[in-house]
């Protein structure tokens, strides 16, 4: 067996370790012999191209500088993940911040897991790695979930297994994308909490959603207060939609007319004894039948 041309590092990094674990089989990298899956190799930074499916493109410059300084002192604790395009060409799967920080730190090589993956696997691994970041906001997570479902052809149960969440959690995040844009932006920018958003999701009336949202921003309402407002609104709507008690004489008359016309007759009457009688029909033939009864 040909000796690998990649320098090996001892020990394992953290982060995507569990995601990248595989069987004891070996992956072939063109011209380089066999490299065990999960092994860490030291590869040249100049041989790595960026990930075209990188879900996150904005990186805080100050944070990158801090990471670069840390790398100068401590080195890379968590290897990046790449796929081999050829013996000396690699494409980044995950670890964009670490790669950029290493460039700032002036490093020539970087420790990496080398994977063999097709384009869909690349996208899936990049999205899952992105979701596992601690500083993602709820909208970024929801959008990543949506992309995994749409572009990686996953079902919600499969997605939950991939990201270590139950289906209800995944569903709650996806529902955030149905909120009006103003609310989504506030959630993305940290002006609205996930608890507030969950309370707002249960409101079907968009104008009422926005009204409550504006009250949250203006008056700094707690999640509990928002939930109380939503419950109060629901009770009011239920009361308004509850049918009024029908007068017994009106109900008796409805029954007689329904029997006479062979259709369910509705009679509405107000407190001033004004109202209307509705005679429904199901077809032209049914209408003609009713007209004959009325002798019209």
TrEMBL record:
<dbReference type="Pfam" id="PF02195">
    <property type="entry name" value="ParB_N"/>
</dbReference>
<dbReference type="Pfam" id="PF17762">
    <property type="entry name" value="HTH_ParB"/>
</dbReference>
<dbReference type="InterPro" id="IPR050336">
    <property type="entry name" value="Chromosome_partition/occlusion"/>
</dbReference>
<dbReference type="InterPro" id="IPR036086">
    <property type="entry name" value="ParB/Sulfiredoxin_sf"/>
</dbReference>
<dbReference type="InterPro" id="IPR041468">
    <property type="entry name" value="HTH_ParB/Spo0J"/>
</dbReference>
<dbReference type="InterPro" id="IPR004437">
    <property type="entry name" value="ParB/RepB/Spo0J"/>
</dbReference>
<dbReference type="GO" id="GO:0003677">
    <property type="term" value="F:DNA binding"/>
</dbReference>
<keyword id="KW-0159">Chromosome partition</keyword>
<feature type="domain" description="ParB-like N-terminal">
    <location>
        <begin position="41"/>
        <end position="131"/>
    </location>
</feature>
<keyword id="KW-0238">DNA-binding</keyword>
<feature type="region of interest" description="Disordered">
    <location>
        <begin position="15"/>
        <end position="40"/>
    </location>
</feature>
<dbReference type="InterPro" id="IPR003115">
    <property type="entry name" value="ParB_N"/>
</dbReference>
<dbReference type="GO" id="GO:0007059">
    <property type="term" value="P:chromosome segregation"/>
</dbReference>
<dbReference type="Pfam" id="PF23552">
    <property type="entry name" value="ParB_C"/>
</dbReference>
<dbReference type="InterPro" id="IPR057240">
    <property type="entry name" value="ParB_dimer_C"/>
</dbReference>
<comment type="similarity">
    <text>Belongs to the ParB family.</text>
</comment>
<dbReference type="GO" id="GO:0005694">
    <property type="term" value="C:chromosome"/>
</dbReference>
<dbReference type="GO" id="GO:0045881">
    <property type="term" value="P:positive regulation of sporulation resulting in formation of a cellular spore"/>
</dbReference>
<protein>
    <submittedName>
        <fullName>Chromosome partitioning protein, ParB family</fullName>
    </submittedName>
</protein>
